[in-house]
């Protein structure tokens, strides 16, 4: 397919990229391109100059932070996340989620930054990043700022990024002690786009029998990942058993108006959100106890 | 900084041969391969990144060439389906697709072969589930995939033990 006429440039530093993005309204960063190239083909958006940031070394590394968390460059691919021993060591779930995005070809090109900045409600990474308490590190010609993932996703294809601003990295805090994360999706076919997702992080008490604290995030219920604060409150202090989690998750999404589309009605999504939430929390408890077997704890 | 513009000089190594061309910034890699270089072994199916017929290997990574712009691969090493056969002899994987009837119309085959080539490099003895995940990005509307999975599985066994080629060379039944 013939794209609209477009300019292309491959800056050698992040600073050069920011300069172009700031000086040209029609400039857009090109990372993995696994969505943007289709957008250009369909002429949904018009871009004057594509700023190829995919080869910038500064944006492509995964580093351990001083406190034991992760700093993940915006251009780290899903496949790199999946295969990273650093990611697997401290945030196993993040590698697992990335490793089940679509197919190998897309995982070899698609990037964590692109997945977030597109803010497509079907994207896999936003809900788990919100659940893990990740922070988006943004940079522009005039400075830097940090935005919690929970505040970054603003709507359907909309984020907190201002014109001229670039997501350079994502900071994922270390998992507290006795903590684990889970992720469950309702999808037709393995690794397919999901109708509903839930991501959960729980912290157990010292003995591992009670849920001390939790973060429960639903995706595809609204246009952005949303926390279910009421369910979190019910989970706090609950027994870390499947029965107790089932009871706490029975009211998940009850106060919400899930979106309805050709894939599912609002009521169907509400019911399935309860199931996905329970599965994600149960997985998170198992992970917190260190009983994951390496292949199933994270789910898809 | 690389020059900004609507046309770019692209130098790549394709199937062992170094080539340089001036391309439009908006040209897709699949069109660069097929139209500019005349390597029509790489097919283009959906043109939306769904079917995988255009899969090639760039710098050791399996990618869909309809989802990449030609200037993005400047300086890269590219392998297409044309690289698999050596001096007219099919690769073990191609031979296995032939033996196990891993195709009907053949449209998806170049992409399937490249995905399977990549898979077997990463994982020389994949399970059937790993094979199915490895070709998840490649759509076949003829075979129902069963023979394709079988072809890849048998090729992996042949590669792992070297039996196929050794026996074939000796003229024995495999």
Could you walk me through the main structural features you see in this protein, from its secondary elements to its overall organization?
- The complex is a heterodimer of chains A (300) and B (174).
- Chain A folds into 3 domains: 46 residues, Uridine Diphospho-n-acetylenolpyruvylglucosamine Reductase, domain 2, CATH 3.30.43.10; 116 residues, Uridine Diphospho-n-acetylenolpyruvylglucosamine Reductase, domain 3 (2-Layer Sandwich), CATH 3.30.465.10; 110 residues, CO dehydrogenase flavoprotein, C-terminal domain (Enolase-like, domain 1, 2-Layer Sandwich).
- In chain A, α11 packs antiparallel against α12.
- Chain A has a 5-stranded antiparallel sheet with strand order 4-5-10-6-7.
- Chain A is globular and about 60 Å long.
- In chain A, β13 and β14 form a beta hairpin.
- Chain A has 300 residues and is an alpha+beta fold.
- The two termini of chain A are 33 Å apart.
- Chain B has 2 domains: 76 residues, Ubiquitin-like (UB roll) (Roll), CATH 3.10.20; 77 residues, DNA polymerase, domain 1 (Orthogonal Bundle).
- Chains A and B meet through β1, α2, β3 and α6 of A and β4 and α3 of B.
The CATH fourth-level homologous superfamily of the largest domain in chain B: [2Fe-2S]-binding domain
Largest sheet of chain A: 5 strands, antiparallel
Secondary-structure-derived class of chain A = alpha+beta
**Tally of separate domains of chain B:** 2
CATH architecture of the largest domain in chain B: Orthogonal Bundle
What is the CATH class name of the largest domain in chain A? Alpha Beta
Main sheet characteristics of chain B: 5 strands, mixed
What is the number of E strands of chain A? 14
**Helix/strand/pairing class of chain B, anyone?**
alpha+beta
**Count of DSSP E strands of chain B?**
5
Please tally the helical runs of chain B, counting DSSP H or I stretches of 4 or more residues.
6
Helix content of chain B: 25-40%
